[in-house]
Amino acid sequence: MNSDKHGLKKLLFRHETLLLLVLVGEWLFFYFRGTTTNFSGVTVGFGTAGAQIDILRHSCEIGLLALVMTPVILTGGIDLSVGSLMGLSAVVFGKLWRDAGVPIPAAITATLALGALAGGLNATLITALRLPPLIVTLGTFSLFRGLAEALTRGADTFTGFPASFQAIGQNNWFGLPAQLLVFVLVAAAIWLLVHRTTLGRSFRAIGYASEGARYAGLPVGRRLATVYILAGLGASLAGLIFTARLNQAGANTGTGYELFAITAVVLGGTSIFGGSGSVHGTLLGWAAVAVLSDSLPYVDWPREVGGMLTGLLLIVALSAGVLPKFLSAWRARRHSSRSVNPQPTPSP
Amino acid sequence: MKRFFSLSFLAVSLIFSGCGKKDSAPAAGSAGASGKKLTIAMLPKSKGNAYFLSAAKGAQKAADALNDTLLFDGPTQTDPAKQNEIVEGWINKGVDVIAVAAEDKAALSTALRKAQSKGIKVVSFDADVMPDARTFFVNQATPQGIGESLMDEAARLAGSEGEFAIITASLTAANQNEWKKSIDERLKMYPKMKLVEFRPCDDDKAKAQSEATTIMSAHPNLKLIMSICSPGVPGAAEAVKQAGKTGKVKVIGLGLPNENKAYVHSGVTDSVILWNTEELGALAVHAADALARGTLKAGDKSFTVGGKTYDIVGDNIMLGKPFIFNKANIDQFDF
Question: N or C end: fewer C-beta atoms under 10 angstroms in chain A?
Fold first, then answer.
């Protein structure tokens, strides 16, 4: 087996490559089945710029959460509180602006600070008290949502934001949704952080072997604090964009979004146990889910099928990921049973 | 390895085989054989809600009669963001007209204004949006209509004389207090009737039942209990039944047919008042169709559907007097 062939095969079997194929397949399917021409000869449906822009708009918040969730999961952690924090951020932002009369830029800054603070709370509980992230963020999942509901008594909503603020969520800049610019900036920053800095490498080291990283002299506590604060910041940013998109902020903002974000990350090939994964994988996973969940009405399928297909996609993609390993293990077994004197099998 | 290649190849080709145009029927905005077939998109607050399913039944009948295509879609649970996204999907799909029941006024209006700017007509029904985000609101009932219907029905059953009591949601509930005001107004027409109790049940059936029991023992001559919150109707009915006063103390109220069917059939509850949800759905579709075709315009004073004329007050198309569900018709409704 020469190295060239090996390299090609490796590329083909990479999770990201398979995911890209799935995404392209999905897109072509919806493009050919979901685009039609109406009475007046105008193209309508999935193939229009409007539909593509709306897919990006509708999934932008989940994409942001998935981006900031990636470093968290790389360290072997999880953050279940991001969806709730979106809700709390939206409500606090609305209250600051409407009830306290704080100008929009200051209210945005304060909301982002709140997000960082909330992430800091998660980080403190996880690192100082050494509590498992799943338990801590399950707690703050309820805590943040509860706070948002208490602040609004579950009924009050905020609306009538200035047009300049709504523009972030509704207008197009250079033919692209305004929030996409924010998204691209965040994606670039997270990608550089994870793949091009020592800080980013340390996330994987911690996820691979947290104790080992500690003995190697890495400040594990501080590194973990970084990823959870980043997650908090991302969640409050998502809450703000959601508010601008709907011109409405309520306590139920972002309900269930944490699970969509985790789905995108895991579908993108990041190990839920930490240690391995990539930001571009997350982006592909996010795009695959985004297209699927927003496009079914264009082919006249009930939207409810979206959840089922996303689940199937996740299961199939993850199974495909372990298939090569499984196959080589199976062949090694068959090989060794044939030989009289079994030789030590090289690890795959 | 070869085996795995062929496996993944199979998977990919499977995905693509779905792309083949099996049927050439276009997704939406399809041209009918004759004239213009409209695509009417209808958005309920939530899809599984029996109340809206009943409205959808009427809407589908109306769309069939008009030879239009009806798309009925909504969130599985109430979710303002999802409502918004569904409407934006319809804009891209190029539907002709949209009829909505808003979970959240402000959020949905954002998407509806966008639809209007693309030339898509909008009506609202059941729960209105911002006035600038739609042309008409199909209004199912006014506080006045509800109050008058309840009082008239109470007077009819009591023979226009005697004591009666009202069970409400809470003493501060805004809707209920508006209805109470119009009941009081109407009561002046029945001088021999006397309102002896006005009690809250906190929207709880068990509480309504105990309140009704207390009211009956305090007022032995009571002729009727009227509940103006929906859990109160079966609650009061259960109290009357257990007190053995079926027929002696009549029960009426504002509520849903399903939760009252048993009591109506056993004669404890005489009438349940609400609007006809099927007619509401049908009227919304008729208004949407007429608006898109230009036969219904802002400023019109009335709207006629198959011989029945509906008043238009401002930009509200009025469904008219509430509907009375009784032994004779309650089984035709399932919500």
Answer: N
- d(CA A243, CA B107) in angstroms, rounded, equals 9
Q: Per-residue b/e over B177-211, b at no fewer than 16 CB within 10 Å?
A: eebbebbeebbeebeebebebbbbbbbbbebbbeb
Contact status, residue A69 vs residue A228, Cβ threshold 8 Å: no
For B137-156, what is the mean pLDDT? 93
Asked if residue A244 lies in contact with residue A161, where contact means CB atoms within 8 angstroms, the answer is: yes
Rg of chain B over all Cα atoms, to the nearest angstrom:
24
pLDDT at A187 over 70: yes
Distance from CA of B31 to the nearest CA of A (A): 7
Task: Check CB contact under 8 Å for A51 and B29.
Answer: no
CB contact under 8 A, A36 and B18: no
| Beta strands A248-249 and B97-100, pairing class | unpaired
**Chain A residues lying within 8 Å of B110, measured CB to CB:** 166, 170, 245-248
Residue B189 near chain A (CB below 8 Å): no
* The pLDDT of residue B2 is above 50: no
Chain A contact set for B31 (CB, 8 A): 39
Q: How far is A119 from chain B (nearest CA, A)?
A: 25
Residues for chain A: how many in total? 348
> Is A161 in contact with A247 (CB distance < 8 Å)?
yes
Tell me: the pLDDT tens digits for A210-227? Answer: 889 999 889 999 999 999
Helices (H), A197-304: 198-208, 210-215, 220-246, 257-267, 279-295
Residue A54 and residue A57: Cα distance in Å, rounded?
Answer: 5
Q: How many CB pairs below 8 Å do chains A and B form together?
A: 113
* 0.90 surpassed by pTM: no
DSSP string, B46-80: -SS-HHHHHHHHHHHHHHHHHT-EEEE---SS--H
| DSSP category for residue B249 | B
The reported pLDDT for the residue numbered A1 is 40
Q: A73: closest CA among A314, A278, A290, A257? A: A278
Say how far apart CA A117 and CA A127 lie, in whole Å: 15
User: Minimum mean pLDDT among A16-25, A81-90, B63-72: which range?
Assistant: A16-25
Alpha-carbon distance of B256 to A245, in angstroms, equals 36
Give the residue from B70, B85, B98 with the most A CB atoms within 10 Å of its CB, the best one to mutate. Answer: B85
Ramachandran sector of residue A140 (left: φ over 0; alpha: ψ -120 to 50; beta: rest): alpha
The residue in chain A having the minimum alpha-carbon distance to the alpha carbon of residue B94 is A44
Distances (CA, A) of A184 to A48, A178, A187: 22, 10, 5
Which residue in B12, B29, B90 is closest to A25 by CB distance? Answer: B12
| CB spacing of B19 vs A250 below 8 angstroms | no
Compute the average pLDDT of residues B281-307: 94
Residue of B nearest to A28 (CA): B19
